[in-house]
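Record copied across here:
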Amino acid sequence: GCTDSAALNYNPDATSDDGSCDYPSVVPGCTNPAAGNYLASATEDDGSCADIVVIDMADSYGDGWNTDATLTVNYGVGYGTDYSIDAIWPPGPAGAALSDTIEVAVGSCVAWSYTGSTEGYADEMSFTVTLNGAEIGSGGGAAASSGYTDTCAVGCTDPTQTNYDSTAEVDDGSCFLSGCTDSAALNYNPDATSDD
């Protein structure tokens, strides 16, 4: 009989497979090869396609991260969602390691930022952020750090600046405000960073 439990005619009493297994013609799953959860054997897309973000955090001493350190992962169009370490690993004694997985829309902008720590033993703390198995960021300790994927639109995200870009998801430090920068002039603008 058929000994494959995935087959439609699986026979749990069969002790030898006779090649008669019959499989469903439709296999639901993610059919987008660009997705982190792509299923090559899927014949019908079930709407489950997603990119997979994994956050791994560690404390080499085993007593959890310092209370002043924060790791935030932002994802989605225009940073639709913020995901902070505090939501999954509260500050204080919590153990040596923690890992969490987030499913995000395929091709989403994924960015991360780490505040660093000024408390003692900051060098015990470390983290890694991966997207579909590829590392997109790592760090820890006292130094602040940040990064983002190449799917992010970068530009000036401050709407008060001259070169504001409403489509930018990550600020690239290019913001400037045009105006008069001469302090002796009547129309001097102390906030201007670029003289017009």
